[in-house]
Amino acid sequence: MAYKKPQKIGLGNSLFFAMFIALTGYFVFAAIQGDYGHFRRIQVEAEEKRLRERLEALHFKRVQLENKTYRLSDGYLDLDLLDERVRKVLGMARVEDVIIR
Asked: Which of 48, 81, 79 is nearest to 64 (CA)?
C-alpha cells in the first residue's frame, strides 16, 4: 500500500468557492427581498386585494348615484326623493313639520 499525501486546497479553489457562496447568497437574498422578490409579491397582492375591494365599493356607490339621478330625471320623477333633496339641500320644511335644534 502506497502512502498518499493529502492534497492541499489551493488559493484558486478557495476563491472559487468563496465567490460561489457569495453569489448564491446574493441571489437568494434578491429572490426573497428584492424588488421582484417574494415579500414584494405578497405586498403587491395585498394592495391589489385592497384596491379591488375599494373598486367594488365605488362601483356600488356609482350604481346608487345612477339610481338617484334616474329617479330625479325628467323621464321619471320621484316626488319623495325630490322632497327629501329639497329639504336637505335648501333647508326647507313644511308648515306642519316640527323643527328640533
From this structure: 81
